[in-house]
Amino acid sequence: MKADGMRTFRYMRHDTLVATEASAHMQWLRDCVEPHFCSEAARDGDWRVTFSADPELFLAVMTKRVHMREVTVPFFTLDTRLVVLSRWNAVDAEEIVAYDEEFDVFFTVRPARREVDVLARDLRPWGRVALLRVVRELAMQEAVAENGVFLHAAAFERDGVAYVIAGPKNSGKTTLLIHALTCAGGRFVANDRVLLLRSAEGYAVRGMPTLVGVRAGTRRSFARFFDPHHFGPDSGCLTREEREVEQRDVATRPEDALILNPSQFAEALGTTSSTGGRLGAILFPAVSVAANDVELGELPIDAAHNLLASALFPTLAPYGSTSAFGRSLWDASAERELQARVEAERIPLLSCALGPCAYERGATAWLDQLQSRAGA
User: Fold this and answer.
1) In sequence order, what E strands does 147-186 have?
2) b vs e for 328-345, b when ≥16 Cβ sit within 10 Å of the residue's Cβ?
3) Torsions phi, psi of 22, nearest 5?
């Protein structure tokens, strides 16, 4: 691998050495994971991950499947599902070879040696997402092993204080996040998952990078930010230089949803990314015809506990299996203790009713209320 195709990425105390055969792959990965991951010149890490494309080798692996019956291995935790992949090689081998049909790549994992090879059929850009998933999953497993708790949530930061927006899909997380980022000088932390860590000040929030899905309705609400960039259907998996070529060829229709990488998302909204900050409050948004704009409210204790529990990001624990990367099932005590600690430290858990005028440019009073409730 070339020197510009090798870098070490650090998340908390976990280092991953990444090697790619094309510098564009590395640049795209950096666009996705920085500043949450610190990257630096290549040096040995806790894991080594390579990403390459070789059509002949890919076909050779494809034709050497051992298991004609379905044998699967858990690989990645997403917000609504566990990604399990078909195993290609013998069960008793010291390495795991598995095929990911979604991105048309093979993963070869050697847990004892802490190595992962990602082999693509060709250099189509969307295959890069497989590399992102590996780097992210390794970091998540280490963070949870150190008693971190992940929430299915978005987050923004103002003046060193992070505000978490938690809830299921289509609850308004991304739309409320964009409103906060574009009208109040907030900085972007995360769109889909955040890490809570015990700190001297209570809890600290850190982001875990994901691609950002912007639904068609959200895009229309904030067209003044997204439309000038002429994002195309493949923008999320492209570097800035590659997008300059894409823009000349194709762009999405205004009524289409978007998939952007974190760097593109922040740039489109005219803000910067933040690694996080002290946890100030957790919001649970819900659309409400009874509200006018954005209305914050206190939640009954039982309701707050139930909502917080439902916002926990899925782990492998419910599935009763270790992942392909060899990490044993983690202790869920940090998740169980979260509610008691949040209550003891008086971190506000707030309902957030989103009315018909929630995202108008002047609907910003809720942010001042939020900052006051957080003691910021």
Assistant:
1) 149-158, 161-166
2) eebeeebbeebbeebeee
3) -130, 135
Which DSSP symbol is given to 29? Answer: H
Residue with tokens 């819900």: 286
User: Do residues 324 and 110 touch, judged by C-beta distance below 8 A?
Assistant: no
Residue written as tokens 């997403």?
78
Residue from 249, 191, 256 nearest 223 by CA: 256
For residues 180 and 155, give the distance between their C-alpha atoms in angstroms, rounded to a whole number.
Answer: 10
- Going by C-alpha positions, the residue among 180, 204, 170 that lies closest to residue 285 is 170
236 closest CA partner among 337, 127, 338, 134: 127
Contact present, 178 and 358 (Cβ < 8 Å)? no
Q: How far is CA 41 from CA 18, 44, 45, in A?
A: 10, 10, 11
The alpha-helical segments, DSSP class H, found in 187-313 are: 216-221, 223-226, 240-249, 262-268, 301-310
Helices 333-344 and 301-310: angle between axes, nearest 10 degrees? 140
Could you list the mean pLDDT of each consecutive 10-residue stretch along the chain, which spans 376 residues? Answer: 77 95 93 96 92 95 80 86 88 87 95 95 90 95 88 95 90 92 90 90 91 94 92 91 76 84 96 95 92 91 90 66 70 75 88 90 88 82
pLDDT at 214: 95
Question: Which H or E run includes 28?
Answer: helix 23-33
Mapping DSSP to helix (H, G, I), strand (E, B) and coil, where does residue 196 land?
strand
* Model pLDDT, residue 124: 81
The torsion region of residue 83 among left (phi > 0), alpha (psi -120 to 50) and beta comes to beta
Query: Residue 109 in contact with residue 324, Cβ under 8 Å?
Result: yes
Distance of CA 74 to the CA centre of its chain: 18
| Domains in the chain with CATH codes | 3-144 (no CATH), 149-211+261-373 (3.40.50)
* Integer angstrom CA distances of residue 194 from 207, 279, 318: 5, 11, 20
DSSP letter, residue 312: B
Specify the pLDDT at position 202: 80
So what's the pLDDT on residue 90? 81
